[in-house]
Design brief:
Blueprint lengths: L1 E2 L7 E8 L5 H11 L5 E5 L2 H4 L6 E4 L3 E4 L4 E4 L4 H12 L11 E5 L7 H9 L1 H6 E11 L3 H7 L1 H8 L3 E5 L6 H14 L5 E3 L22 H7 L28 E3 L4 E8 L5 H15 L3 E8 L8 E6 L2 E2 L3 E2 L10 E8 L3 H9 L5 H6 L6
Parallel strand pairs: 1-16, 2-7, 2-8, 3-6, 3-7, 8-9, 9-10
Antiparallel strand pairs: 4-5, 5-6, 11-12, 12-17, 13-14, 13-17, 14-15, 14-16
Helix pairs in contact: 6-7
Family: Belongs to the SIMIBI class G3E GTPase family. ZNG1 subfamily.
InterPro entries: CobW-likC_sf, CobW-like_C, CobW/HypB/UreG_nucleotide-bd, P-loop_NTPase, Zinc-reg_GTPase_activator
Catalytic activity: GTP + H2O = GDP + phosphate + H(+)
């Protein structure tokens, strides 16, 4: 099992998704125009769509614009991986013109499915050695999200896969429409933090270096990455018996009724068995296939004093990785599953079968990884 490094030198990438008309282009343009100390490389489908102020451009070529504030805008056209490769070669001084940047923002087309790119960070060795996916950020059009979800599967995937959700066009909807849009987004992805933006005016730190896809070892970063809402719908206090709580061990799934997408969270204070967890994850991929969107969590394995990071996109999982320490020293497994057609009762039973038996914990003081 690997140990996550707090000194990861790979270049962070933010993947910006959102359906047609949500305002991604305006958002990207504002980021490029207002960046000060940040050296950002932005990859877009076509230069003509971004509408960069000509006064900002210091040098231009067929596939790249260099801006006076140190940012770069590149065209990916049909090959995003090729654009990332060229960027890295120019940054390393192995291709001309040499450029300098610290992070990458990729604006996807409105119809793009973010799954393939997210999976590429697990399956493409050259990509994963050079870049890391910092977060999938989805921009939601509050005015049209209901119609988009009814008519396009891509819209549902973009929200369900998001690590963070930005919401635009609040000024164009009534309070009732706003609440309805929030309920739709929450049903698809109740765990991603959400914030409103006006006319694309998001702060750079709302998009970049937010560390929500692949956490580093910082205690606060891991906690933020796997933040799970309290599973109990009732505000009343309740007691835990024998270190276990039937109420908050699993949450009721939040379901988007048009599509059948739901999310389930698990919390468990008792340690889990390594082999059983692997079997549980294998069962998820085999049972749900392409309907499994995201799995992420921190696992308290029997015999280990450090949390283990679980991260998967559809049927592709990253290698299990140790984080530094449990928050405040409290070991507790937390796991989130988002997908279509999730069978809560069967999933709950399979998850709880991973709990290590008391006699095994006494007999085995360690876990082989």
């Amino acid at each position: 099992m690997k140990t996550s490094s707090a000194n990861d030198q790979r270049i962070p990438i933010t993947l910006l998704t959102g359906f047609l008309g949500a305002g991604k282009t305006t958002l990207v343009n504002n980021v490029l125009s207002n960046a000060t100390d940040e050296k950002i490389a932005v990859i877009v489908n076509e230069f003509g769509e971004i509408g960069i102020d000509g006064d900002l451009i210091s040098r231009a070529s067929d596939d790249m614009l260099e801006l006076a504030n140190g940012c770069i805008c590149c065209s990916s056209k049909d090959d995003l991986m090729e654009a990332l490769y060229k960027l890295y070669m120019r940054r390393a001084g192995l291709a001309e013109p040499k450029v300098d940047f610290d992070r990458v923002l990729i604006e996807t087309t409105g119809l793009a499915n973010p799954l393939p790119l997210a999976q590429a960070f697990y399956t493409d060795m050259s990509l994963s050695l050079t870049y890391r996916l910092d977060a999938i950020v989805t921009l939601v059009d509050l005015k049209h999200v209901s119609v988009q979800l009814e008519n396009a599967a891509e819209a549902e995937r973009q929200i369900a896969l998001a690590d963070k959700i930005l919401m635009s066009k609040r000024d164009l909807v009534s309070d009732a429409e706003y609440e309805n849009a929030l309920s739709l987004v929450h049903a698809l992805n109740p765990f991603a933090p959400r914030s409103l933006i006006n006319f694309g005016a998001a702060k750079v730190d709302e998009l970049l270096d937010i560390g929500l896809f692949d956490p580093n070892t910082g205690e606060s970063s891991v906690e933020k990455w796997i933040a799970i809402e309290p599973s109990c719908s009732s505000p009343e206090r309740h007691n835990h018996h024998d270190g276990h709580c039937e109420i908050c061990s699993t949450s009721e799934p939040h379901t988007h009724h048009h599509t059948g997408v739901s999310s389930v969270s698990f919390r468990e204070e008792r340690p889990l068995e390594y082999e059983k967890v692997l079997a549980f994850l294998a069962g998820l991929t085999q049972g749900y296939g392409s309907n499994l969107y995201r799995v992420k969590g921190l696992i308290n394995f029997q015999g280990s004093d450090r949390p283990v990071i679980v991260q998967g996109v559809q049927n592709i999982f990253s290698p299990l990785t140790y984080a530094d320490a449990w928050r405040r020293g409290v070991a507790e497994t937390r796991l989130v599953v988002i997908g279509k057609g999730i069978q809560r009762e069967a999933l709950s039973e399979a998850f709880h079968s991973c709990v290590a038996k008391a006699e095994d914990m006494l007999e085995n003081g360690f876990v082989m990884v």
